Amino acid sequence: MKTPKKQRIEIVSVYQFVLTFLFMGLFFSLLFFFLFFTSFWFLSVLYLVWLFLDWDTPDRGGRRFEWVRNWKVWEHFRDYYPIKLVKTAELSPDKNYVLGSHPHGIMCAGSFCNFATESNGFSRQFPGIRPFLAGLAGLFRIPVYRDYLMSCGLCPVSRQSLDFVLSGPQRGQAVVILVGGANESLHGVPGEHCLTLLKRQGFVRLALRHGASLVPVYSFGENEIFTQASFGIGSWQRTLQAAFKKFTGFAPCIFWGRGLLFRWGLLPFPVPITTVVGCPIPVPYRPNPSQEEVDWYHKIYMEALEQMFEEHKESCGVSPSTHLRFI
To answer: Where are the transmembrane segments (predicted)?
Structure first.
């Protein structure tokens, strides 16, 4: 049983993550703009100089700090739901990997907890493997927020960035890609297991170009931590969401969780999240893979992901009659 103090600490830890996810980038962008018109204008100028000099760092492996990944706050964040990491096979440190993480959900809580922090001991469970959680490239152009993301081991989900990580001499590099992206977040409805995957082949092509093994990852419970207003395809609401996503790179989901003072709020529901890391799928080294090769390994990956889902769904609280749906 958790003590009241422990529960309060967990709530603060989760709120920290939610508010950072939603508002940190906007806050510092407005702050540096505002400082230009005050006596502290030099702070904005100094940071802009630093930003210019440091512009390419996100595309060159980033700048992680293990002490940030080991913050105590991440353990409380983990315990709130709680979030678990399940290992099903060994990952050899002599190889590189491309992990496809599903589903995206609203805030990728399972993926962030397990791959951007050490709260579940990823480095102990997979010794010699260095994970790089890939995020929207535009986030790494936002003042201060970019530095915060890099400190946790995140990198842009761009070809230049991912090629840099996988082409270096060091083995054991693992890029974690939320394959469904912003489009999949629109399907992050409780009880739904709908993945945007049928036409997403870039991660397979990436794996072939570097001979990196593909690894399916599924976070059961990710879609349950928020309630989302879902609009049918073809409705004017979904059309607006799609248009917004096209121009900004992320989808404006309408979601809510539990509140502290009111019935609704931004605090996620404390639903268990179990992230299952599947068996690696060996992939040959093909600097210029053919479309037939990409199609073949994409098919193998989807079958492996579906099999893993079926094997673990009941132990993770999913109904036996529920199956993955690909779009």
So the answer is: 12-33
